[in-house]
Amino acid sequence: MIRWLVAIVSVLVGASALSQALAQCPDIETYVGEVTVAEFGTALFGNFRSNSLRGTIEFYDGVCLTDAENGWAIISDEMLVLGVQDEQETEIRIPESKMIIGDWVIESQETQSLGADLMFTTASFVGPKFSGIASQIQMKLEVFQAWFTEVNIVGEQFAAEGDSALLDGEKFTIFHGTATTCIGEGEPFYKFRGTGVDLDLDTGEILLRNGLFQTGGISLPLGEAIELNEAALAELIPDIEFNYASVDSKTGEVESGFEVTASEIRLSPGIDISLGLGSYGKKPKLLGYGNVSLKTAVVDAEFGLTREGPRFDFLLEEEIFQGLDGRLHIRNHHQANSDYLHEGVLGLEATLLDKEWNKGLVVSLNLNGFGATSSQMLNSGVVVGARLGAGLEGIVKSPVTSIGYFLFKGGFEATSYPTLGSAQFGLFAEPTWVLRFGPTESQFRYTRVHTNAESPFSEALDRLANTSKIDFLTSVQGKLPRDAEGDFSLQLTYDFLAPGQDALELEAEAGIRFNVNRMSFIGKAWVGTISEDEAHRNALRVGGSAGLKREKLDVGVWADYEFREHQSRWEELGVQVALPIAYRDLVVTPFAAVNLTAAITGNEKPTVLGHGISVEWFTCCGDLTAGYRYERNDFSIILGFRL
Description:
By secondary structure, this protein is mainly beta. It contains three helices and 42 strands. β8 (117-126) and β9 form a beta hairpin.
């Protein structure tokens, strides 16, 4: 008895048993019969013819081969089944078919079986995250695993191709392939090439293995593995900044000028370079500078020419044995902000105690000592000499309770300057109480430093200063009714060593934000002492602002009033607007900020506080943004790229 006779009988007597295949095959009413195809599933068909000599059955006028248990179906106009004799292996051949399996749809010019597998030739496919084409797809039906040959895929934000690919569950891997976010006709502006491109169909993440970044004739190595996203692309593009003004780090004075810096350009893992070019001062001179940094597990080094001057810094830290660390530190900072410091230091640090008990009590105690030769250029002249010092530092942290936890830091240090005939000591203590309750966090801290301040060097190296002050900080942030968010912060500082009117510093701010239909309404209020102006340290500043934001649209107003001892006044009454204008693939957003105080309180013209413009261009590679913004003597260039 041959199996094709059994199949025909099942058609004649089992036509009512269309069963589980109904859910897999469309237009079920067009099929007139059902037959089981060994090793593959159930075939629904419109008509059939058989050849007992050749051992074949040909289904035509529409056929649907389905396996309800594994959740797939192949739909075609016709299908040929070979090897229906008992001693032969079943083989199927299907021209121009469409396969539905889970979230995938595969269309091919030809489909045939290879044992228990299916081979699709000249195929196109659509998946949950991307679509594509392949010269061949070989699929293992029972485990939903498929090999692709000469594959090209296009996703919502990327395109990729490769010699071969493997679909295994929720992971799609392209071997010896390329990927890019430039989706369009022609050669992409840039692409990533690697031995493997892994796509996670569940999370959408794309991982490139042993890759290169290629643009034009330039190739940059990317290491063993890198995730292709905006952050990874940002690492490839140097952090370029354009600054209109710079601040003298020594005097605090603003120097007019312009500079361009490119920070942390990766040369190789652990080695970065930063470059800059600028012109400053009343008689501008063009200055260039560069700085190289090296970081390993035990070495942190930096050398080159910075805007402030030449710099060489070498730090080697390594554990000598458990509980004892050694340190070699060489610093050559020929810069005004460090008083032209040059020194070499050898140091040891011993961990005497470092323990955490089960209930959360933490205690640590460290002892350190060092020897150094140092030099600085001070106003009084050049200071050169040896430094020998030792210190003891301890930390105690209490368990966390319903009323918060207690943290104490304290210690002692002493430094001798044998060649300069001087010595300095310092005692310090800093008890802190921290409370976290829901969205509220509060800190109460007292800082005390007692010292003779007898170091012949400056504060930039080791000179201590007597300190006695209390800090209180509290902040609240959380959700409010009706899709609103609120926050409040308060900082109070009382300096016991400062003159009476300067002893208290206050800074408080409260804000609220409503989100309605992708639009945000923002309000803020603030109050604080004015600590920047030494002549009016006891002045009080009060202000508030209100604004509306929606994507690039930004409209706001603000007011700032100062209560001074002799003359109170409106400091600012301002308005700012950023209004996006869309045209085809471009969005142009001009920006302006104006202080109206002079116009409202007198007869003078308003003061322009800021202006700028940004242009966003939507390309096949992503969104390119360029522009500038000048605001309160701060000039910046806007350059951005989003995948």
